[in-house]
Design brief:
Elements: H1 3-31, E1 39-41, H2 49-61, E2 68-71, H3 75-82, E3 93-96, H4 108-114, E4 119-122, H5 134-137, H6 139-148, H7 152-160, E5 166-168, H8 175-184, H9 191-200
Parallel strand pairs: 1-2, 2-3, 3-4, 4-5
Helix pairs in contact: 1-2, 6-7, 7-8
Bound molecules: NADP nicotinamide-adenine-dinucleotide phosphate (NAP).
């Protein structure tokens, strides 16, 4: 590579790292805080991963963020990330995961478990059931909900975090929902419950494309 090309790449990299820094600064101002516990790349985009990671690592060194992660990365993206120089500092991958959308159970979830990186499940309640109404009215889910004296969506949330390797981020404004979601964390399924759930929301038998909303 000639000097001119090398200088152009260096310049583009500096510009991108600067953009990440400004975006984070703006978020800190809007939130009225000095640092963030976790800062995520929303999706892959066109910027080379190395550049994004360099920006994230710089923010971490400056103390503006404590950790960084990614979102909407499928297994191939995670493998590529893992092979970059600081990719192993990624703390989580936030992806769509709920009982009615469990494609990641086939490859991505086992991959992340093997690499000791938790999945962060977004929309774990399928947006209150609107993405999959069967969560609200399936007879098997109703039966299991009755057994634990809870609502079907609490079963859906408890299922999402059943392995202790998945963090779920349900969004709830109403107090009763916040309390119900906290209570869901106390539900411990039996093998029989889980196999009944698998019968109505089957475990994938092949790699599925990552579901995104
Ligand atoms: N990374 C990404 O690309 C991405 C994409 C989408 C979403 N997200 C994030 O994921 C988080 C949650 O996702 P989401 O809001 O899409 O969906 P969600 O958490 O699955 O569902 C939220 C809806 O469920 C209702 N709800 C909450 N708890 C309930 C309960 N116990 N019983 C009945 N209804 C209940 C809420 O109502 P109330 O609010 O009225 O209580 C709200 O309408 C958000 O922080 C969002 O930013 C990330």
């Amino acid at each position: 590579m000639d000097e001119k090309k090398r200088a152009e790449i260096k310049n583009a990299l500096a510009k991108h790292v600067d953009k990440i820094s400004k975006a984070c600064e703006n978020s800190l101002k809007r939130l009225g805080t000095d640092y963030l516990d976790l800062y995520l790349l929303h999706w892959r985009g066109r910027i080379p991963l190395e550049e994004t990671i360099e920006g994230m690592e710089k923010l971490r060194e400056e103390g503006k963020i404590l950790r960084w992660g990614v979102s909407n990365f499928d297994t191939a993206d995670m493998e590529e990330l893992w092979n970059t120089s600081s990719g192993k500092n990624c703390m989580t991958n936030q992806v769509l995961y709920h009982l009615g959308s469990r494609g990641i159970d086939f490859v991505l979830l086992p991959w992340q478990r093997e690499h000791n990186m938790p999945i962060m499940a977004y929309s774990p309640l399928a947006q209150g059931g609107s993405l999959r109404s069967q969560l609200l009215n399936d007879p098997a889910i109703d039966d299991i909900a009755d057994k634990y004296n809870v609502q079907p969506l609490q079963i859906a949330l408890a299922w999402t975090i059943r392995s202790n390797k998945v963090i779920a981020i349900p969004k709830a404004v109403q107090d009763e929902h916040v309390l119900a979601n906290a209570e869901a964390a106390t539900i411990e399924f039996t093998e029989e419950d889980l196999s009944r759930i698998d019968q109505v929301f089957p475990n994938p038998t092949r790699k599925m494309p990552l579901d995104i909303i």
